[in-house]
Design brief:
This protein is α/β, with parallel strands linked by helices. It has a domain at about 5-140 and about 230-305: 3-Layer(aba) Sandwich (Rossmann fold). Helices cover about 35% and strands about 15% of the residues. The chain has nine helices and eight strands. The chain has helices spanning about 50-55, 85-100, 115-125, 145-155, 170-185, 195-210, 215-225, 285-290, 290-305; strands at about 15-20, 30-35, 40-45, 65-70, 105-110, 130-135, 250-255, 275-280. The chain has an eight-stranded mixed sheet with strand order 1-2-4-3-5-6-7-8, sandwiched between helices. Strand 5, helix 3 (about 115-125) and strand 6 (about 130-135) form a beta-alpha-beta unit. The longest helix has 17 residues, at about 170-185. The chain is globular.
Length: about 300
């Protein structure tokens, strides 16, 4: 049930609140509205992540100039599981929430895998998209170059230089899984996300305090892990960089120079007509570890876009 008190007020400012949003097919999603300024919908990465770690570990510093709308997608974070995880269904959830809140145009912010969802929203609902903010995001989940980079980096961490010659996605994915298993044995898996184990401890501690589902991630990834299973959701594994030239709204791309989770050069594949790239010295979790630089980049982008 939507809290009607959260709808836009006469001054176009959304009232701050936290509530459960029930989708048109009766799936309950947690939503939090907090801050002031232009509305900005944040959908987390993962796949299957929740908004809580982003909000509480630095994302809330955006609330001094943006009205942040945090939402856990179906089957992710602490949202309810569902039978339908098709992309169009997730996009409808987002747009139905936008409509219920009385917002005409909205900024969209993604982290990591969330970029795949956000670019599809902008493509399907351009009339309601004010701008995109892609934070350490990918538009191609199994980008071969990013996988090859990740494998090479992982083996370098355990003192083994390797040259990746294969370009087949299945082979690269298998190689990536093998590399991750070796990293786990020497307790270095966190290095793909951050240089500091303390950062991961903070994230794990926060996640442990709240219920969490991985149903969305399981349903879309299980056929990738087990080829005997039928692929039901192939749309999440397409190269959406190819869509970027068709998205004409302002776009901010925040890239980590040491982000080996999505790849340090992934941003180069994005060809939005009206894009700005901000490079920040750091890894995949810039919004936490490099919070001031992250917040400043977003603030400057909003100022420029709202001129």
């Amino acid at each position: 049930m939507l809290c009607t008190a959260c709808k836009q007020q006469g001054n176009n400012q959304l009232a701050n609140n936290q509530f459960k949003f029930t989708t048109s097919d009766s799936i309950v999603l947690p939503v939090k509205v907090s801050g002031k300024g232009d509305p900005c919908l944040f959908v987390p990465g993962g796949p299957g992540g929740g908004y809580l770690s982003f909000e509480q570990l630095g994302g809330n510093n955006l609330e001094s100039f943006l009205t942040m709308i945090y939402m856990d997608p179906r089957g992710s974070g602490s949202a309810q599981n569902a039978n339908n995880y098709h992309m169009d269904r997730l996009l409808k959830d987002m747009d139905d929430l936008r409509a219920k809140l009385g917002i005409d145009k909205i900024y969209l912010m993604s982290h990591s895998f969330g970029g795949i969802i956000m670019i599809n929203y902008a493509k399907k609902y351009p009339q309601h998209t004010k701008g995109l903010i892609l934070v350490n995001s990918t538009l191609y989940f199994f980008n071969p170059d990013a996988l090859a980079e990740q494998i090479s980096f992982g083996y370098k961490l355990i003192g083994k230089d390797t040259t990746i010659k294969v370009k087949n996605t299945d082979s690269l994915f298998a190689g990536d899984m093998a590399m991750r298993a070796k990293l786990s044995k020497v307790h270095l898996g966190y290095k793909l996300l951050t240089d500091s184990i303390k950062t991961l401890v903070q994230f794990d501690k926060l996640d442990s305090l709240h219920p969490r589902t991985n149903d969305f991630a399981y349903k879309i990834l299980s056929p990738v892990m087990d080829k005997s299973k039928k692929m039901i959701y192939p749309e999440y594994f397409k190269d959406y960089n190819k869509l970027s030239p068709d998205i004409n709204v302002p776009v901010l791309i925040i890239n980590g120079t040491n982000d080996h989770a999505v790849g340090t050069n992934t941003y180069k594949l994005m060809k939005f007509p009206n894009q700005k790239v901000v490079q920040i010295d750091g890894g995949h979790l810039l919004y936490y570890e490099k919070n001031k630089a992250f917040v400043d980049a977003v603030k400057n982008f909003i100022k420029e876009t709202d001129k």
